[in-house]
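OP here, attaching both records as promised.
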Amino acid sequence: MRSEHWIGHMLNHRFWLTAFLATLFTPVLLAVSSPAAAQPISFLLTVDTNTARLGDQTTIAEGADATTVNVTLTRANGQPLSQAQTIRIDIGSPVADGGASVDSARKGVDYTASVDHFDISIAAGGTTGSGSFTLTPIEDVLHEGDEFLSIIGPSSSVDGQVNVGVTTVTITDNDDGFPVSKTALTVDENGGTETFTVKLRRRPLVGITVTVTSSDDTAAKLSIGGGTPGETGTLTFTRSNWNVEQTVTVTGVNDDIDNPSDRTATIGLSAPIPGGGGRKATGTVHVTVTDDDHPTVTLTADLDSATAGDQTAISESASATTVTVTAALDGSTRFGEARTVTVSVGGGTASSGVDYAAVSDFEITLAAGSASGSGTFTLTP
């Protein structure tokens, strides 16, 4: 009895152990996922060139003194950062492939900056940070238009990829072109003349050569210093004569064309900007050339083109006859565009409807540049 009890106890115990081991070594499959790719952290860049004024000011005048530019970096989604960030901000765009900068304002030519780059830090739990640098526009004497420089953030940081927007500061030009005494003038085409003068607004750092060119030297030529009129000329300004007016003479050029309207030309002024990477300052003077051509049209009639000379007589008993009328321009002047001449038959001693069948008015067209045109009508005595 005792032996059976022990054996039964052992059997029960053995059964429990087997079940325990089976449970212990049952295979378990675990799913292991790859870590999710870090999402870029996006920031917005803003600049303010004058904190005393409401809103962000993004411009600075060419003639301004050294100016503090405040730059703010703000997380785009407004969420606090889980880790502190320090991001480098560059002043001015890098030179792109081919040697040209994206910016129109050139460092060392149009402005200087106190640093080439600086860092903006944002603490963990923060959303914004700021920094500043000093920008000094470089004054010049040439009209080059408004120019801009970029404020740029890089694309990496300790927290993974960072997307940083680009913003700009605009340097507003304070030179309204070359100071010319006239911006528009009128000359007669038969050699009429008018003049205008040119000078610089400020003393240049180096000498400047201004090229003066006529856009159409068949209408208006120019001359400088009493020279022979032509298509182009040059004005030279130095540090000593920069404010002395130099004279350009514009001369109208004659033609033998009765133009439908006065001709025009533009006198262009252009000078390379020292150190400007090929950029040029420009100016214009508009020229109107008044037309003085007014040709006279003479009409001739020929009743028999087969006979030499103009035949102008017809017998009262003749049958219906074709009359050719020619409209010819006197002299060498021609029309600049096609013109029509209206011809009326009548007005002599012969009476329309009595001595010959009435003839309706008709037109003769003279093509542009042609010396004559012709038309016909039927004359029935």
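Record two, same layout:
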Amino acid sequence: MTRRTPPPGTSTLAASDTLASDAAGAARATPSSGIEDTVDAADVTRPPSDGPARPSPTAALPSDPAHLPLVAATTYQHLDEVGRGGLGRIVRARDTRTGRLVAIKEMRTDSHDAAIRFVREALVTAHLQHPAIVPVYEVGRWPSGQPFYAMKLVTGRPLSRVIADAPSLDERLALLPHVIAIADALAYAHGEGVIHRDLKPGNAMVGAHGETVVIDWGLARRLDRDEDSLPPLAPGTPGTADAAGQTALGSVLGTPQYMAPEQARGELVDARADVYAIGAILYHTLSGKPPFDGLTTVGEVLEAVRTRAPTSLTRLAPGTPRDLIAIVERAMATDVATRYPTAAALADDLRRFATGQLVSAHHYGRGERLRRFVRRHRVPLVIAAVAATALTATGAISLRRVVHERETARAAERAQARARGAGASRRCHGFAARRELPRSAPRGALAAASQPTPSRCSRRRRGSRRTAPTSASWARASPRRCPRSARSGRRA
């Protein structure tokens, strides 16, 4: 048998790194806690809704592995193992009928109860058809009676590893589209009446081309069916352990650090438990650490989840936008009624934040609204500001020119008015002089009084042609005659 090993830094999975359907998955804990494995025990789900239940697509399908169709062992060529958990493993194989590479998940134990859980996981996963959910190609059993299912081979890295490779907040903020894809996938699953109950960054694969796929639906439940009768795993089943071994039995199920408080208390859960888990994934993405990081045992984490909220992001990641912190706090609210009612509402708020719009989880003041408006419409505002500045400068120059031309016109009008006033004044003086002369005055004296007073230069040019009054007494009667003319009259 030929075995191929994936390149370093890349894992090829189709369902999960931990195979949580076997209730114990391989340990994928953070170095500080070692508690990020799935806790599985008595199955807990919410009661049927008050309205008429929608028929389950898997209701008519077999739940007993013995009723699954028999598939020949030669149908798939097993290549190599790419993942292993407590009760199952993931094998890369080639479908000999089509030649395509697939991932096969098969059992590692002969436990009948574990087999029932395994079949339930396969059927629930096969029912979900979404781009962000791994598709199942075939569900069957080998000639040995062991159940298996074949699914799409997803090549990439878990989101947890991608987050670990992003040390700065800006790099982690760039991972927000992956969280939105997870929320969209769960919104679709909730619409189909299925809840995941074990969401965490390790159960989301990021492909080589940026695609995001939610895997490991081993703890998924349909909300329109009463599945509390599903048998719990026996304590002696391979892969189970006590709290010190990261798996607890008989009370709760899921991964403690991403588990909703009501789920940690063993209560009935609905889709809002997945909403809390998506908020915990977003918390991990922004802070670089899982919620309640630093606690060492499952019991400590469960007690913390039940009683308090995790450390605020304002302390762990001070540069995180406040509206994004508000989204996390609402999604991870300890009160179920305070959370987003659906994963679709959470995805919508995340998408609104990503596009620069206002989110429903945050209350915005006037100043914050103005700043967001400026950031969102920066280019149009800059263009408008430049245009307004140009228009203002053009208007100011035009106004200055108009004012200058108006002042020039007013100065010209004042000069003309002064000139007209001077001419009118001279004519008035001449008329006054004529009125002061007696009617018996000679005609020459009357003509001289009517003319403006000549200048000295004009008198010099005229010389001897000047006509003097016939009498010195008449010359003195004109107030406009200069003393020189008066003297000339006296000499005459």
